[in-house]
Design a protein that fits this description.
Keywords: 4Fe-4S, DNA damage, DNA repair, Glycosidase, Hydrolase, Iron, Iron-sulfur, Lyase, Metal-binding. The chain is built from twelve helices and no strands. By secondary structure, the chain is mainly alpha-helical. α2 packs across α3 and α2 packs across α8.
Length: 247
Amino acid sequence: MDPAADDLSAKALAIHRRLCALYGCPIPYFHSLDPLSELVSSLLSHRTRNAESGRAFKALRARYPDWAALIDAPTPEVEATIAGVTWPELKAPRLQAILRAVRERHGALSLDFLGGLDVPAARAWLEAIPGIGPKTSAAVLSFSTLRMPALPVDSHHHRVAQRTGLIGPRVEVGPSHAILRAQLPPGWSAQALYDNHEVLMLHGQRCCFHRAPACGRCPLLDLCPTGLARRGRDAAAAARPAALTAS
């Protein structure tokens, strides 16, 4: 047994329970795409606001009758169709290359077969394709109609985990997937893992902001070394003028 790992698991569960009470678990899935379509959606969403990536996804759906047609389309046309996302000039050829790789490796343009694999094997299959990393593979398995127990970690989720000390300050988003998943019970359902991702993401969006986090109203403050340190600095700063006046 590793006492430090046990302490982090206990903290992860305490954070999960408090945020679920705040944001209301179970959280409904935000859409129900087949896994190949979820792959396209996830690739579009990288470093892009949900509204913009959603519009780009709908534009692709409207322009092409199926994903095979997207593969065969002129790349500049695809780029123009997804112009609202970040780096469309990179995402257009990458989308085509990844979809082409799926078809070549599987023999069909479908990812439904991943439902017959366990999560590690399904993630390994996806991540063997250049351009698919841990976040995308977990999103495909968790968010799509496969509803598999995989834990995605986005930038908001990662920020909350880092500030609360669940992961170290130098752990990047990619490696954080395995660390954060290992802190949660191995038998957790797909819904429970989805809830965990969603509540940490929501907390990052609504309270634990990138700049000027709202530590004063955070229900995790007593579990958060970053927030406690910030509160201590604020208290010290507030006390200094009074001390100067008294002297």
